[in-house]
């Protein structure tokens, strides 16, 4: 298996995170999402001298990946209810972590503008997952245990946050632009598990993986 990264952007409730996790499991690689934000937040809270000491230790031990695995994984659904507020320093730490992960290992990275951060690398496959609102609402109601009204509001607020976040840090690009991605998949029409299969087939075509690298359950 060559070293590669699959980045995921996704509409809230579309199943994008589940698809990313299943893909990583099939390929025997790690999936990173909010642990990137957690580590970046911890690092941004350090003064410059302490940050340099931590950064040196991280690099001595093979990069950020070993530190990331010790952090708790995110809940299945994390909604953003606040308005987007930029934090350039925090985003800078996230970019450093993402690039370091891409240098060190094959992995899946969800969100965090990872497709943009790694846009100049040839070993990156970027995927966008979306689905009709009715499908996303139903999944949100089931996974979060909320009413239809709350599900609609949660999807609207979270997707707006993601759109504003992406536009700010990519200098005006828009999050749902299909040109940003290798693949754009409708998870309702394709199905969650078949989205995983399609991405795996694309990785085979790109020669990032061999058939033997895929550990999918029959």
Keywords for this structure?
218 residues, alpha/beta, 10 helices, 5 strands
Description:
The chain is α/β, with parallel strands linked by helices and 218 residues long. 52% of the residues lie in helices and 11% in strands. It starts with a strand and ends in a 13-residue tail after the last helix. The chain contains ten helices and five strands. It has a five-stranded parallel sheet with strand order 2-3-1-4-5, sandwiched between helices. The protein has a single domain, classed as P-loop containing nucleotide triphosphate hydrolases (Rossmann fold, 3-Layer(aba) Sandwich), CATH 3.40.50.
What's this entry about, in short?
By secondary structure, this protein is α/β, with parallel strands linked by helices. It has helices at residues 16-27, 34-44, 48-60, 65-69, 88-104, 114-117, 133-144, 148-169, 187-190, 192-205; strands at 5-10, 30-32, 107-110, 124-130, 183-186. A five-stranded parallel beta sheet has the order 2-3-1-4-5, sandwiched between helices.
Write the layout of secondary structure elements.
Layout: E1 5-10, H1 16-27, E2 30-32, H2 34-44, H3 48-60, H4 65-69, H5 88-104, E3 107-110, H6 114-117, E4 124-130, H7 133-144, H8 148-169, E5 183-186, H9 187-190, H10 192-205
Parallel strand pairs: 1-3, 1-4, 2-3, 4-5
């Amino acid at each position: 298996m060559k070293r590669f990264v699959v980045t995921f952007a996704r509409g809230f409730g579309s199943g994008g995170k589940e698809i990313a996790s299943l893909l990583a499991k099939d390929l025997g690689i790690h999936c990173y999402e909010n642990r990137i934000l957690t580590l970046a937040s911890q690092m941004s809270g350090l003064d410059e001298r302490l940050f340099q000491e931590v950064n040196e230790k991280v690099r001595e031990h093979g990069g950020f990946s070993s530190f990331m695995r010790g952090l708790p994984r995110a809940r299945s659904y994390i909604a953003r209810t606040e308005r987007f507020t930029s934090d350039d320093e925090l985003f800078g730490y996230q970019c450093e972590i993402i690039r370091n992960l891409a240098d060190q290992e094959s992995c899946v990275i969800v969100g965090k503008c990872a497709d943009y951060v790694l846009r100049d690398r040839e070993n990156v496959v970027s995927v966008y997952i979306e689905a009709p609102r009715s499908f996303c609402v139903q999944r949100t109601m089931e996974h979060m245990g909320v009413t239809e009204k709350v599900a609609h509001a949660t999807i609207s607020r979270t997707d707006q946050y993601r759109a504003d976040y992406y536009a700010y840090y990519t200098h005006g690009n828009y999050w749902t632009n299909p040109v940003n991605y290798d693949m754009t998949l409708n998870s309702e029409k394709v199905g969650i598990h078949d989205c995983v299969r399609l991405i795996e087939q694309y990785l085979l075509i790109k020669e990032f993986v061999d058939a033997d690298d895929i550990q999918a359950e029959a």
